[in-house]
Amino acid sequence: MSYSSYSSGVEASPVPVVPPSDNKVGSCEARKKDEVEHFSWEAGMLLNGKYRITKLLGDGTFGRVLLAEDNRAGWEVAVKVIRNVPKYTRNAKREAEILRDIREADPRRSSSCVVMHETFTHAGVFFCLVFEVLGASLYDLLKRNRFRGFWMQDIQDIARQCLEALVFLHDDLQLTHTDLKLENVLFKSTDPPRPAEFPREAAWLEAHPSSKEKDRRSQYLRPASSRIKLIDFGNATYELEHHSSVINTRQYRAPEVILAMGWDDRSDMWSTGCILMELYTGELLFRTHDSLEHLALIEKAIEPFPVGMLDVTGDRKREQLLELDPQANGLMRPRWPSCLSNSSECRVRSQRPLARLVLQQHTLLAEFVASLLILDPHRRPSARSALAHPFLFETFPD
Fold first, then answer.
1. Of 140, 154, 157, 179, catalytic
2. Per-residue pLDDT, 53
3. The domain 138-393: what is its CATH number?
4. Is position 315 annotated as part of the catalytic site?
């Protein structure tokens, strides 16, 4: 796998799921964990009697990922070596259990979920997970292309594969991923992307008049193959397990999670919609770090919250984020614009509706994303039903 293939601790998220604690004891413990060094390696070292290390793929909070050759099977693997921190080891072992469930339920390897070959403990200390080698993440390629977005054909293919993977997770395993984002969707192929023309270049330049000259002149790249794999199941949750109150990286978080209303596998559908629009525009759909601003952006991009939905908000979130609507007979509404800063209110006012984020010939994409971003999770489609949307059957020249 590439460096970003292990965002469950190998590459930090752009925005942490939970902000750093202000608690002094917690901060001290975090510093102690950071002082624990990564596994010391050198080229040619043998792990588990058969994995000969060739190079470093990347470092992160939880561990270090090494490219190695399986001397017995004759192929390359990615070995994730967890740092010797008890909490990190426990989390890695739980993820390994989920990955074993995925592997057993998908003997043909057709689910578009990453394959974990095995686990072992090195020197009695370092817990290791052995993965198939994958390519770059969607975010990696988007960044290389100066955030110019993907071809429609590629977006369509990625959308179909993501939904098929979610059908497998949701229906076959009753498992919610809980952390879908560009960094956690990888290209299956390790082949380098190929030069291409960006079909929406003129529209991109018009929308970014102040872009740097190096961005304007940079070569656009398409993936060698649009086949993808989902990774990072460290926070995946089974239907009957305890559900954490906070899931997802902020920008991909569904409104029912923001409002502490309880969540299920439909939260993954919301994250998928955010991903697809980001692949088109090259920018986060909801660029925010604040819950109230997030709710306001959602209403501007999609629609006002349906009548009664906010009335089942968790008590603490209700107090923080909502107020009585004087025009709606005691129903609740988000506390904006009155409780937003001037800069935040400006960002909300500038948020464009979904339909205005796409070119006219791509209206079907906006409609498809809107169907995934239905605010009421009870009305949001399942992955299986979303696979019937006309967008996935349209032929796009670009």
1. 179
2. 98
3. 1.10.510.10
4. no
